[in-house]
Design goal:
The protein has 589 residues and is α/β, with parallel strands linked by helices. It has a domain at 2-311: ABC transporter type 1, transmembrane domain (ABC transporter transmembrane region fold), CATH 1.20.1560. 63% of the residues lie in helices and 10% in strands. The chain is built from 20 helices and 12 strands. The protein has helices spanning 2-8, 12-46, 51-98, 102-108, 110-152, 154-201, 203-208, 212-238, 240-265, 270-311, 387-394, 417-422, 438-443, 450-459, 463-467, 486-498, 516-529, 565-571, 573-582, 585-588; strands at 334-341, 350-351, 354-355, 364-371, 376-381, 402-407, 410-411, 424-427, 504-508, 534-538, 550-555, 558-563. The strands form 3 sheets. Strands 8-9-10-5-11-12 form a 6-stranded mixed sheet, sandwiched between helices. A 4-stranded antiparallel sheet has the order 4-1-6-7, covered by helices on one side. A two-stranded antiparallel sheet has the order 2-3. Helix 17 (516-529) links the parallel strand 9 and strand 10. Helix 2 packs antiparallel against helix 3 (51-98) and helix 9 runs antiparallel to helix 10. The longest helix has 48 residues, at 51-98.
Amino acid sequence: MKLILRYIRPYRWYILAVMLIKLLGTGTDLLMPYVLEHLLDHVIPAASDAWPVIAWGCVMLLLTLITRILNVCANRMSVRVARNSTFAVRRDLFHTALNLSGSQMDKVGLPSLISRMTSDTYNVQSFIRMIQTMGIRAPIMLIGGTIITLTMDTGLAAILCVMAPIMIVLVCFVSWKGIPLYNEVQNRMDVLVRRMRESITGIRVVKALGKEPYEERRYGEANTRMMKQEVKASVIMSLPGPIVTLFLNVGLTLVVLVGAQRVNDGHTEPGVILAFLTYFNMILMGVMGLNRIFMMMSKANASANRIAEVIDLPEDLTPVSEGQLAEAPSGDALIFDHVSFNYDADDPAEVHGQFLGEQRQQCLKDVSFRVKKGGSLGIIGATGSGKTTVVNLLMRFYDPQEGHVFVDGKDVRGYDKDDLHRKFGVVFQNDVIFADTIRENISFGRETDQERLARAAEDAMAKGFIDGYMDGFDHEAAIRGANFSGGQKQRLLIARALAADPEILILDDASSALDYRTDAELRKALRAHHAGATTVVIAQRVSSIMSLDEIIVLHEGEMIGRGTHEELLVSCPEYRDICRIQLSETEVG
């Protein structure tokens, strides 16, 4: 609940006004049965004509109109507060998600982030809206109705005084038991979102292999588990409803029986009985309202705690003070100095609900290399050899457990995150095309004029197919670039990286979908127009890296070869084997 209080604090005076208006609206609502009792017991018997009755009827209509106006006004104001507060929660949650380190993102998980931004924030919004209106109306209906009945007839009110505490204790006890159940509901929602996201992302593979029934079964299992937990929590939280109704119906019966006897004995007026029945219904609404509030509070508390877990995460990879930074061995643009790294460096732990047994094999083991400013480096190796991990460490998505990484002669731990990332132009292995125009996908929010945009597209070999569209750079891309081929998407991604004229260009398997001719023209354009950029190319093709200044060969996290193409053909058997598979005998030599 601390998170909710934090975000509604700026609106405290506005919320106070909402509650005051709701209090007045509930007060006028409580007056209605009292006026009705006065009309029946005092006005009608003493009236000589219809005008006093009409006058008091108009009073009731006026009270009804005032009640409606006040309640509508309070409800609209409460919705505004809930909307603005939830907007701030989602904004901060999104900002935190964008700035999570790699290890933090691994622990939280993308599906969990999605469910926290959607269902969890919705639960918080619903609670903020309800607590401003129902949070005032329900207690006032309960307490106010009881107090008014005490002033009208103490004997009949004693029935309420016995039943009300029992019902309130029951509601509070059940709600206390229900809060942990909703935590589990939201955890199972994470699993459901993950299954759904996997199925949607891989829909083409699912269809191609005819595995629709299999995916439906997997999704159905996750959905069923979440449904059972939701039903269990809802059943427990719904128990007060029928029990309270039973108590109040018994109370109504007693009121009718006892009231009839008191009317017969002349101790009570008939209008009091009618007013009592109305107040009993109001008290029933108040108790049921409290039950709804506790149910929503249970959901909101679980959701707020999950949101706070992310928003309150400390910034993981903050810049390190000068005294703690390692001194760069030289002024080269990029340096790996005896770097060792493992994604699962901590003790075995439960991550995303699945227990990790033994730690995975180390991703990088004592890797060292240097790239001069304006130089080029190629990285090649089998899948899982640690190639992409090199990029993650260069951009400080993670910190190595051993060794140091330097960019432009400075330890990466000393850079501000944004300053470091501005040095890079990167095409990641599984990069994304957004549902926007080609222009926006390349410029990506940067101040990029048309000339630089066209030059980047031309260097990336993308201008040819862009010009083929009638609307050119204004052509709309579908979600994840579904209306482009694999090669077209890669060329747009390369154009995005080149558009900022980066100091360091990293291409992580960025040409795997390009034909050999386009790949060769791309390399030629990079040498001609971006020779000043320090270039790191990660590739599966030898042809993409063979002309670079230096190549390193990785195998299971170890650097087993380093040198030029010609030197590796002599010194590295693994590299020579790759070349024999991919190149002709003449090229291999």
